[in-house]
Design goal:
By secondary structure, the protein is an alpha+beta fold. Helix content is 32%, strand content 24%. The protein contains five helices and eight strands; from the N terminus they run ββααβββαβαββα. The chain has helices at 26-34, 48-65, 110-124, 140-148, 175-182, and strands at 11-12, 16-19, 70-74, 80-87, 96-101, 130-135, 152-157, 168-174. A five-stranded antiparallel β-sheet has the order 1-2-3-4-5, with helices on both faces. Strand 4 (80-87) and strand 5 form a beta hairpin. It starts with 10 loop residues before the first strand and ends with a helix. The relative contact order is 0.14.
Length: 184
């Protein structure tokens, strides 16, 4: 695979580099998407060809809109640990910051660390006035992450096809709520 990286910004946190999708991300991306538990709430387990299309979707979104989920990379190892960030597909119920972490990266605080940097980016650079997180009612770890970010459950919502039948709650907060929380 080439070293090609989609065009877009790079953000850094204490432990993470958040950058656009790269071809080199594919092996770990495919591992994450093949894992039934890791992929349960992000479209379900997928074979490598379907995961490849998902990776290409993110790269294409970066190239065509300038907005897509970042690849999360551990600074200390260079290891791809997940995808996280702004996401605004056609028909989506709002401007979302979403996440999906590789199984070996879960429970290490990377979701909160990366999402906080991405919320700053969404509000300060993209100019968004609110952010949502579309979370399955059974996805307790994502609900806890949203709560740690200061988001609250705003009630059920609908996703566009082909996900229209999936149960989803709309979690979120405004730019003002985020800034008040960050300035404490």
């Amino acid at each position: 695979m080439t070293d090609w990286i989609a065009p877009g910004p790079t953000l850094e946190t204490e432990r993470l580099i958040l950058r656009p999708t790269a071809m080199a991300d594919f092996p770990r991306w495919a591992e994450m998407m093949a894992d039934p538990e890791a992929a349960r709430f992000i479209g379900g387990a997928q074979p490598a060809p379907a995961a490849w299309r998902g990776l290409m979707t993110m790269a294409g979104a970066w190239a065509l809109t300038g907005v897509a989920m970042f690849s999360l990379v551990e600074k200390s190892t260079g290891l791809w640990v997940g995808r996280l960030g702004p996401w605004t597909p056609e028909g989506w119920p709002g401007t979302e910051v979403g996440w999906g972490l590789h199984p070996d990266a879960q429970g290490r605080g990377y979701g909160v660390e990366g999402a906080a940097a991405t919320l700053d980016y969404a509000f300060d650079v993209l100019g968004w006035t609110d952010v949502i997180h579309c979370i399955d009612p059974d996805n307790v770890p994502s609900q806890r992450l949203a709560e740690r970010l200061g988001s609250s459950n705003l009630g059920p919502t609908k996703l566009p096809p082909p996900f229209q039948d999936a149960p989803v709650d709309r979690w979120g907060q405004t730019r003002e709520q985020w800034r008040a929380r960050r300035n404490r």
